Amino acid sequence: MSEESLSQIELEMAVLSRRIASVARNKREENLVRAAYLLLFQISTHGPAGVKGLAEELQLDISTVSRQAASLDQKGYIKKVPLPQDKRSYLYEITEEGRREMTEYQQIRREKVDELLSDWTEEERAQFGVLLKKFNDSVKVYWSKG
Amino acid sequence: MSEESLSQIELEMAVLSRRIASVARNKREENLVRAAYLLLFQISTHGPAGVKGLAEELQLDISTVSRQAASLDQKGYIKKVPLPQDKRSYLYEITEEGRREMTEYQQIRREKVDELLSDWTEEERAQFGVLLKKFNDSVKVYWSKG
DNA sequence: CTATATGATTGTATCATACAACTATTGAGT
DNA sequence: ACTCAATAGTTGTATGATACAATCATATAG
Questions:
Q1: How far apart are CA B68 and CA B40, in angstroms?
Q2: Which of the residues A33, A56, B33, B94 has the least number of beta carbons within 10 Å of its own beta carbon?
Q3: Does domain B32-145 match CATH 1.10.10.10?
Q4: DSSP states of B38-96 as a string?
Q5: Taking every annotated instance into account, which residue ranges of this chain make up the domain HTH marR-type (chains A, B) (predicted)?
Q6: Domain coordinates in residue numbering, chain A
Q7: Contact B16 A132 (CB under 8 A)
């Protein structure tokens, strides 16, 4: 019944959390810092944005986004575009190099997922992708409420 | 095709990782430290074990398990059982209080998952649970190889 | 008996995060 | 126009979960 699925999801989420924590401290980083990947992705898909807007969209603290952005900026993957009407803020826009780097990083990640799921059927992959997205969407809503 | 599922999983895993990191730093802790939950679970389902064995099973560094176990021990959720034939090591076994605490924590987590997935069908939950477990299993194998 | 291996602990570093304090700029009310 | 509150962003500090390296105590092999 329902209870069983709940238990399973609850447990497997704990397992996955643990694994993710472990991966995060373990992996030698390439150029693109893992955490900043989604920031770069956000800018690349939704266009230039300021720190505040990015933080809201990603549901992260402004200070966190500020640091991630500074790091991407320093690597030349994004650059500040000043706003004439407000000298406090700017928009970050992705650079050519940033787009290249993101694509490359994505490709590496995809290959890893592919390898990881090498014994999965296409149907399983498709289902998992859809449900995982649905899960994240649910979490996002839950988060924004309380 | 396959590419699309891969991309989706790759992206949504990044999103989930980020969220998990955020939850980890955000949440006020109850009695049971989040990370130690799986350690307690392992002992509760597989019986008494030493630090080394637990670390292997959980694929964590021995030092990490040692600290988590010390924390659970200090809270009275597990206790050391000396081995007469080897004074270096002991087995940790779960206490009554530990079992109670674990069950309670589990229950709270399940309720949260239930709330989170309130608009999911039973079929979706079941599928997600199964696929999530399969994913974790795949990761575990991948990890143990390289 | 000594040297090496083993189980566990402890010291230290790291990463991504949040919260709090701060800086610079803007805008509103008088 | 001046002051004071609001706002965008940065920087300081703390935290949790981890890994790796050094160490300690005990056990075992030669």
A1: 9
A2: A56
A3: yes
A4: HHHHHHHHH--B-HHHHHHHHT--HHHHHHHHHHHHHTTSEEEEEETTEEEEEEEEE-H
A5: 6-137
A6: 32-145
A7: yes
Find chain A residues with C-beta within 8 A of B120's C-beta.
Answer: 134, 138
What digits encode the pLDDT tens for the residues B1-14? 578 999 999 999 99
Maximum Cα–Cα distance across chain B: 60
Q: Is the dihedral of CA A15, A42, A140, A144 positive or negative?
A: positive
The answer to whether the CB of A78 falls within 8 A of the CB of A98 is yes
Window 50-89 of A, Cβ < 8 Å to B: 58-60
DSSP B35: G
B7, B19, B129 member nearest A9 (Cβ): B129
Closest nt by CA–C1' to A26: D19
Instruction: Compute, in degrees rounded to 10, the torsion defined by CA atoms B63, B69, B73, B78.
Output: -150
Average pLDDT over residues B123-145: 95
- pTM for this one? 0.93
Closest CA of chain B from A53, distance in Å: 17
Among the partner residues B11, B20, B131, nearest to A131 by beta-carbon distance: B131
